[in-house]
Amino acid sequence: MQNGLTVELVTFKLNEGADEAAFLQAADAVMADTRQLPGYVRRELLKGDDGQWIDVVHWRSRADALAAAEMFNTLPSAQAFGSFLDFTSVTMLHPVQALVWDN
User: Which tens digits make up the pLDDT trace of 2-23?
Assistant: First the structure.
């Protein structure tokens, strides 16, 4: 199972007073770099009513996900994206897909 599709789940809150529209622009801008990372499949950004965000990125393997996590902060677009995050609230998981149900 270690080599299966891996879902990167990052939960976080924005810094106090952060401009949400500017954050969404930064999240969109980081996609040009993210799409170029080996193993990238797709990404979703979710927002809860409590201000909690979940960044969901699908990777072909756990190795791809971990390598991308190491490289991500070196990307200029990621630095702008990260400037909006309250890093005391960040958690990151890399679970590997065990079962899938469609419809």
Answer: 568 999 999 999 999 999 999 9
Domains of the chain: 6-93 (3.30.70.100)
Could you tell me if 10 and 54 are in contact, meaning their C-beta atoms sit under 8 angstroms apart? yes
What is the rounded CA–CA span in Å between residue 102 and residue 76? 37
Beta bridge partners of 56: 9, 44
What share of residues in the chain are helix, strand, coil (percent, to 5)? 30, 35, 35
On the CB side of 61, CA atoms within 13 Å amount to 7
Q: CA-CA distances (angstroms) from residue 59 to 23, 25, 33, 66, 75?
A: 23, 23, 14, 9, 18
